[in-house]
């Protein structure tokens, strides 16, 4: 089969982008909200930072969270590397960045529903208006998924 006979596909690039988006969004959440702004930590609602034991526990859970983010990011890079070795992958910036936005948005939506709403282990910004902050986080995640999906649709039309 010649290169001109190869059918190009987007799936390997989309999967790599989504996995990278999940990991990168987790890093942004952990670095910005947990460390820089210090609005919350992984279990700060159920174990408030009121004593050394709770601070240590939250630190461990934040570390485990970052380990998960690291694993997702490395997996995304490996998938991207593997896709790069294939002649049948359509290399489109719109496809790749749209997929990253979908992954980042999915991270926010899933993390927001599970950790903020169902488990209640932390909130985006606890205290006054915490539900507003949590809902804003969910809306922002959904918006990222929507914009990413639009980018994917536009990249499909370019065939």
UniProtKB/TrEMBL annotation:
The chain crosses the membrane at residues 12-37, 63-83, 95-115, 135-152. It comes from the Bacteria. Signal peptide: none annotated. The keyword Transmembrane applies. Keywords: Membrane, Transmembrane, Transmembrane helix. InterPro entries: DUF2243_membrane. This is DUF2243 domain-containing protein.
């Amino acid at each position: 089969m010649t290169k001109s006979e190869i059918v190009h596909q987007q799936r390997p690039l989309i999967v790599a982008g989504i996995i990278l988006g999940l990991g990168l969004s987790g890093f942004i959440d952990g670095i910005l909200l947990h460390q820089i702004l210090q609005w919350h930590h992984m279990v700060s609602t159920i174990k408030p930072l009121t004593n050394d034991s709770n601070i240590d526990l939250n630190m461990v859970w934040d570390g485990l969270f970052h380990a998960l983010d690291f694993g997702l990011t490395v997996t995304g890079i490996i998938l991207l590397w593997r896709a790069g070795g294939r002649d049948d992958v359509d290399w489109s910036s719109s496809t790749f960045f749209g997929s990253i936005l979908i992954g980042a948005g999915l991270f926010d939506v899933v993390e927001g529903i599970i950790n903020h709403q169902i488990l209640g282990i932390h909130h985006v910004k606890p205290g006054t208006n915490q539900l507003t902050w949590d809902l804003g986080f969910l809306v922002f995640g959904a918006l990222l998924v929507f914009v990413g999906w639009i980018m994917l649709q536009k990249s499909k039309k370019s065939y």
